[in-house]
Amino acid sequence: MAYLIAANWKMNKTVAETEDYIQRFLPLVEDTKNVEIMIAPPFTSIFVASQKLSNTDIKLGGQNMYYKEKGAFTGEISPLMLTELGVSYVILGHSERRHIFGEKDSLINSKVLSALEHGLRPILCVGETLEEREQGRTLSVVERQIRNGLAGVEAEMSRIDIAYEPVWAIGTGVNATPEQAEEVHSFIRNLINEISKGNDQGTRIMYGGSVNENNAESLIKQPNINGFLVGTASLDPERFSQIIKVSQEV
Ligand code: PEP
Questions:
Q1: Is residue 218, in this structure, part of any structural domain at all?
Q2: Using one digit for the tens of pLDDT, what is the confidence trace for 30-75?
Q3: Model confidence, pTM
Q4: Strands 59-62 and 205-208: what pairing?
Q5: Residue 246, C-beta contacts closer than 8 angstroms, at least 6 positions apart
Q6: Which residues form the domain of 173?
Q7: Quick check: CB of 232 below 6 Å from ligand 1?
């Protein structure tokens, strides 16, 4: 199973900036092996990114989507709109969606179901807040998010990836230590193995939260870390390519 190294650009980069990024990024990763690369630009940049990446192995992702195909859902994007542009992944349940936009497990579950129905590969994001960690609730919070987020799709587990992103580590510059991350990743691996009845071999458990070119190596060396979801450091093609390089050498 190739590592999945994914860029979550969040609300960054115009169309012109996207074109410039891809032009600078492609030569930096042309020799990449054993690592799957995915970029999730803002929706407005997906069309141009799709054109620029069409002759490469680099995958495109949506940062979110609504679960309906079309209709009166102002401001939302549907799975059909993503697949038409060649998008193959969709990030669901990101902590910013949960905490800023109030998304609950049940809505996230509807999105996971819809993504699978439309042939998109969901990356389900889970993770505890600092308060939850300090109260010793990390594993129970992650378990609830996974069980509820994946309700009804347990048998499809190998078509889904999971990103463990402790909320206190996202965009803060404070990453989880490799040991802290590995503890939760091995818990998630056991949990998804149990709920999928052993059908989880194709599922990558990615780590996200202040991953950069300096800490990537010690994190990816952990046995249950199968990739990264990278925010801040993915905005710079040099830094993102370094993370990819470090990961393919482990
Ligand atoms: C993210 O938002 O998915 C993320 C991990 O961000 P950062 O790398 O900036 O912590």
A1: yes
A2: 999 999 999 999 999 999 999 999 999 999 999 999 999 999 999 9
A3: 0.97
A4: unpaired
A5: 213, 216, 217, 220
A6: 15-232+241-249
A7: yes
